[in-house]
Design goal:
Elements (H helix, E strand, L loop, with lengths): L2 H7 L2 E7 L4 E4 L1 H6 L7 E4 H5 L4 H17 L3 E8 L5 E15 L5 E12 L16 H19 L3 H10 L9 E8 L2 E8 L12 E2 L5 H8 L3 E3 L2 H7 L4 H5 L5 E9 L2 E10 L7 H38 L10 E8 L10 E7 L5 E8 L4 H19 L4 H20 L6 H6 L14 E8 L5 E7 L5 E3 L5 E3 L4 E2 L12 E5 L5 E5 L2 H4 L5 H13 L10 H5 L16 H13 L18 E8 L16 E7 L6 H12 L6 H21 L4 E8 L6 E8 L19 H8 L2 E7 L2 E9 L11
Parallel strand pairs: 17-20
Antiparallel strand pairs: 1-2, 1-6, 2-3, 4-5, 5-6, 7-8, 7-12, 8-9, 10-11, 11-12, 13-23, 14-15, 15-16, 16-17, 17-21, 18-19, 18-22, 22-23, 24-25, 25-26, 26-28, 27-28
Helix pairs in contact: 4-5, 5-10, 11-12, 15-17, 18-19, 19-20
Length: 751
């Protein structure tokens, strides 16, 4: 007897599936099992695929790929459908995937195996179900692993429901889902899939005493399986009219249990008959447990987000009314981890005489205590400023306030030493540790643009000039608040010219993403200097403003502050990642606070027809006790001349400034005041640098010896400057020099 005859006698067919050619070869028995005429045939892949249940077809690809990777047999259980979509029978396929390498090097496979009908119990019976073995069981386990991972990553109730609706269970997939929640003595629908929005009406606020499967599941904590409409009608006659209109034939209602408490029920409804075998019930029960835990986590996370968002919004002030001649924008972005609360803050405080103050600060830490200290410190700073104290006095009082606040928390009078020791395992020791805070306080006169800055360990402000040049503005400062209650905070004064913008920020905007202070500032400078945030009315002039030109091309529109604030935040962790979840959310390593202050330029309608390019100007004081600020003076000159045509002239200017400031600190008892200004059109600008001091001793030309360490300052200016001089003043003098930009001519064209 032939092998084919033996296989046909036991209702087993042979098939060969060539994935490369897209054809399937069937013997007569295999064709009969697929609902085709009982004769050998070669069919295209699409004709055979139409005979399988869509869910089974989607899963067989994974089973075959797994068998190819492991070098094992591919075993699957498949439902055969007729042309009307009814299930004819269930078959089991066992095949061996064999790789085929084409001439072009690509790899495909061919399946050679058997197909055999298996007995399925009728819905509602207790007949034993054919055991699922081999790769089919591994497919179910892989499904549960994927479902658990997807549900664990869901961060909101809506995401959990979307994941539940997208689950494709191995061998049987519901086409209707509903999640019921229990609150008090009522049952309500949290979410559903496969139904119209208006279908949830009868199930909203349903009493738990209702004769409905989900209500009974919540009352008893036990699952209910209804494999047929007759079973549903027999057990729940009152609720059957509600379920009948959805045209389903099988239902499973499972309890959602967390920590021994039934929080709701999950309904899975099927349009095809489901017998709810032990294996299928095991899958449904496992999914229900994971779904309950995911909903519990999502509810807790949403409550925490609502709490922390309300806390931060209550602590973050509004920028207040508009100030004539000034525009202000601010952003706050909490860190990506934990409760998303932290110690960064900003504030705008109205002051007497029409002035206002801008404050930005950062309390150490990213926890609830940091947020609490931030709120207390912000209120204290606001109170001291409203009393009319100067910037240095405001920070001095705030430092004493924070030091006293942390000291009182560290030695709580209501908890003795023994009690504190007993509660050491419960109370967080870090909650009692001292904290410090950095702060930058700026008092502004909107009429003149004069700024008075006091700084407590905070990053310096940055200034974007009217022509787009960005400079770091060094300011005098003291220790962070709360470290030494008796620290002094010197004040730095400078003017914000029309068209200039000042940026205040916390270190989270600078150092996030592995950057240090230098590389972080370089990243932000690129955003500040770009024209992506220019006002929409800028037009071509904005683009031309970055290159050579005359007339209106040399004058940039003021930046659009709201757009600029968004771009600065996006430069750190990507577009809008602080509003939505995504792969960039974890880049929020620290809180971010940023404040932008722009002094409006002259109205363009009343400006001259051909306005001159705005001057670049910087002012810096170098005190006797701060000789290290000479390096800052050199850096200021380099940044001021960042687009100067001749780099050698930039080096000359830096050298002369370093020499002039050093001479003041060496030969006088006072401080050095540096004023540098560059005016004119690109390629024909003039740089004038003045260094003033309080000494009336004038410099004189000397002939230093070969080994002399001084006496070369005047010689350097004679050699390098286009002009220089000394101007006596009422108290002291001013030494100055000028450099005229020399545009480099283009190279001769090559013919």
């Amino acid at each position: 007897m032939r092998t084919e005859d033996v296989l046909a006698a036991i209702a087993t067919g042979l098939w060969r599936w060539d994935n490369a050619s897209g054809t399937v070869t069937l013997d007569s028995e295999a064709a009969r099992l697929l609902g085709l005429p009982a004769e050998p045939v070669v069919l295209p892949e699409v004709a055979v695929r139409s005979r399988f249940h869509p869910v089974d077809w989607n899963e067989i690809n994974g089973i075959v790929n797994l068998a190819v990777a492991e070098g094992t047999l591919a075993e699957a259980r498949l439902r055969i459908m007729d042309v009307d979509g009814r299930v004819l029978r269930t078959v089991r396929s066992r095949s061996k995937p064999m790789e085929k390498r084409a001439a072009d090097g690509s790899t495909d496979y061919e399946l050679i195996g058997t197909i055999q009908e298996i007995a399925e119990p009728q819905p509602g019976t207790t007949a034993a179900h054919t055991p699922i073995t081999g790769d089919w069981r591994r497919s179910r386990e892989a499904f549960l692993l994927d479902a658990g991972r997807a549900l664990a990553e869901a961060r909101s109730t809506a995401e959990v429901l979307r994941v539940a609706a997208s689950l494709s269970m191995p061998g049987f997939s519901p086409d209707g889902l509903a999640v019921f929640g229990a609150a008090g003595d009522r049952l309500s629908i949290i979410g559903h899939h496969g139904h119209d929005p208006c279908d949830e009406g009868p199930f909203t606020h349903m009493p738990l005493e209702t004769d409905y499967p989900a209500a009974e599941v919540v009352r008893t904590g036990r699952a209910i399986y209804l494999p047929t409409p007759d079973e549903y009608r027999r057990r729940f006659p009152a609720a059957w009219p509600l379920a009948q209109r959805f045209d389903r034939v099988s239902w499973a209602f499972l309890p959602l249990i967390v920590a021994g408490r039934t929080m709701g029920a999950w309904m899975a409804a099927f349009k095809h008959p489901a017998s709810f075998s032990p294996d299928e019930r095991s899958v449904l029960t496992t999914v229900a447990r994971m779904l309950a835990q995911a909903l519990q986590r999502a509810g807790v996370a949403e409550s925490e987000r609502e709490l922390t968002t309300g806390l931060q919004r209550s602590m973050m002030p509004q920028l207040g009314p508009e100030i004539p001649g000034m525009r202000i924008a601010a952003r706050y972005v909490p860190t990506g981890g934990g409760l998303q609360v932290g110690g960064d803050w900003y504030d705008m405080i109205p002051l007497p005489s029409g002035r206002f103050a801008l404050v930005i600060g950062d309390v150490q830490g990213h926890d609830v205590r940091a947020a609490g200290l931030m709120g207390q410190l912000r209120i204290a700073v606001r109170a001291y400023a409203s009393e009319g104290h100067r910037p240095d006095a405001v920070l001095s009082r705030a430092s004493r306030f924070l030091a006293g606040l942390c000291s009182s928390q560290e030695s709580d009078p209501y908890v003795d030493g023994d009690a504190r020791a007993r509660d050491a395992d419960v109370r967080d020791s870090d909650f009692q540790s001292p904290r410090f805070a950095t702060c930058l306080y700026v008092e502004c006169d909107p009429k003149t643009g004069m700024l008075e800055v006091a700084r407590a360990g905070h990053p310096d402000p940055a200034i974007r000039m009217a022509d787009g040049t960005v400079l770091m503005r060094p300011t005098a400062g003291g220790l962070p608040l709360g470290i030494d209650p008796d620290t002094d905070y010197p004040t730095t004064r400078f003017a914000l010219e029309p068209g200039e913008t000042m940026m205040l920020c916390t270190d989270g905007l600078i150092e996030t993403g592995g950057h240090d202070l230098d590389t972080g500032w370089a990243r932000l400078r690129a955003v500040l200097e770009s024209d992506a945030h220019e006002s929409p009315s800028t037009g071509a002039g904005a683009g031309a403003g970055t290159g050579a030109g005359t007339g209106t091309a040399g004058l940039l529109e003021p930046p659009h502050l709201e757009r600029l604030a968004d771009l600065l935040v996006q430069a750190v962790h990507g577009p809008s990642s602080h509003h939505t979840t995504g792969p960039l959310a974890d880049r929020r390593e620290d809180d971010i606070a940023v404040v932008l202050l722009c002094r409006e330029a002259v109205d363009h309608r009343t400006a001259p027809l051909h306005p001159a390019r705005p001057a670049r100007r910087t002012v810096l004081t170098v005190a006797q006790v701060e000789p290290e600020r000479i390096a800052g003076a050199r850096q200021q000159i380099r940044e001021l001349l960042h687009d100067w045509a001749d780099p050698d002239q930039v080096d000359s200017a830096v050298l002369m400034v370093s020499e002039m400031v050093t001479n003041v600190l060496t030969h006088t008892d006072g401080d050095a005041l540096l004023v540098a200004e560059a005016v004119g059109e690109l390629g024909a600008r003039r740089l004038r640098v003045e260094v003033a001091d309080g000494s009336d001793e004038l410099p004189h030309k000397r002939q230093p010896g070969e080994m002399s360490s001084s006496g070369r300052g005047v010689l350097l200016m004679e050699m390098l400057a286009d002009a220089w001089g000394v101007d006596p003043r009422g108290e002291g003098k001013s030494i100055w020099f000028e450099l005229h930009e020399q545009s480099k001519t283009d190279a001769d064209p090559v013919f």
